[in-house]
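Apologies for my clumsy wording, but are you able to produce some protein sequence, whichever is easiest, and the tokens describing how it folds?
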Amino acid sequence: MIVAIDGPAASGKSTSAKLLAKELGFLYLDTGAMYRCVSWAVIKDEIDLSNDRQLLNFLKIFKIDLKNTGNRSSFYVNNKDVTDLIRKSNISQRVSEVSAIPDIRDFMVDIQRNYAKSKNCVMDGRDIGTVVFPKAEVKFFIIASDEVRAKRRKLELESLGEKKSLSELIDEIRRRDDFDSNRGHSPLKKAFDAIEIDTTDLSIDEQVKLMLGIVKQKIIGNKK
């Protein structure tokens, strides 16, 4: 079974997906973090995204590994642990641009499908239910108010030793929403059969409980 969870930045989808996967005993795959890994490598290697040959050569040697240990997902790029590095604000400012490149998206979609092949998996991102797994058995689209999402992002940055004002983060989130929703390749959008959940006024426990109930009902229905 594939559970697809899509939604804009800081809507709560990754935290929910991780906990939901744990409750179900499913594999968890954070595709947003995977695009952050590519963005980190692009910045580090100073890749010119407009240079097709340079980009394709970069993708030929790019290797990403995911390790799940306990409640933590660790990401490795070419054997380097980048789990904390990819959460930095400089990555957030580039990830929409990097992830909009068709060659990069096609490359990453293949990796994501291979990870989840023949597995029970909870996967979150922006195009999981529309592009990566359009036939996923359960699809969620997670939203939240701009202010609440900015507050969540602020806490995440502070845990990494970075400080930004709430107004700065609201502006960043709105710009990213606009870019992700209007890009030409695999834009952020709600799948026609996705269940929308607004997490603005929900605790993590409440949203996971709600989603868990829906998935379990689907599992029961499949067994009949």
Observations:
- The two ends are 15 Å apart (CA to CA).
- The first strand starts at residue 2 and ends at 6.
- The domain at 2-219 is CATH 3.40.50.300 (Rossmann fold).
